[in-house]
UniProtKB/TrEMBL annotation:
<dbReference type="Pfam" id="PF00903">
    <property type="entry name" value="Glyoxalase"/>
</dbReference>
<protein>
    <submittedName>
        <fullName>VOC family protein</fullName>
    </submittedName>
</protein>
<dbReference type="InterPro" id="IPR029068">
    <property type="entry name" value="Glyas_Bleomycin-R_OHBP_Dase"/>
</dbReference>
<dbReference type="InterPro" id="IPR037523">
    <property type="entry name" value="VOC_core"/>
</dbReference>
<feature type="domain" description="VOC">
    <location>
        <begin position="6"/>
        <end position="125"/>
    </location>
</feature>
<dbReference type="InterPro" id="IPR004360">
    <property type="entry name" value="Glyas_Fos-R_dOase_dom"/>
</dbReference>
Length: 132
């Protein structure tokens, strides 16, 4: 089980640091560090590092197999982020939708796309036991 003294780390490519910084700060992520070749964020309690690598950008992003994000266990927090993303005009890759409707693993989800075509998924399962 995850303990509070552990932080998940994810490194992803970005094409330009300032637009990347602007996107993640608009998403509500706190800038931790910025260097000439990367920016590091507190991404909902975990660490996301965006490394400057314009050649590594996925020109035609697809939801599968590569995306990352947050699974909420509190519906109101999910709804707050969705409202925040909408109010801040963050770009949606997929608008809010229900997946696996009528099944135990039913959940609501939406995808955002950052300036470097990295896909971010945010979701909430009605049955908390289906999170894992």
């Amino acid at each position: 089980m995850r303990e509070t003294n552990k932080v998940f780390h994810l490194a992803i490519p970005c094409k330009e640091l300032e637009e990347t910084k602007d996107f993640y700060e608009k998403l509500g992520c706190k800038l931790a560090r910025q260097y000439d070749d990367r920016v590091t964020f507190n991404f909902f309690g975990d660490q996301v590092v965006c490394h400057l690598n314009p050649e590594g950008i996925d020109l035609e992003p697809k939801m599968y197999p590569r995306h990352y994000g947050v699974t909420f266990t509190n519906r109101s927090e999910f709804d707050q982020l969705l409202q925040y993303a909408t109010e801040n005009n963050l770009p949606f890759f997929k608008k809010p939708m229900v997946r696996f409707e009528g099944k135990r693993e039913e959940h609501v989800t939406f995808f955002l796309i950052d300036p470097s075509n990295n896909l971010l998924e945010f979701k909430y399962y009605h049955d908390v036991e289906m999170v894992y």
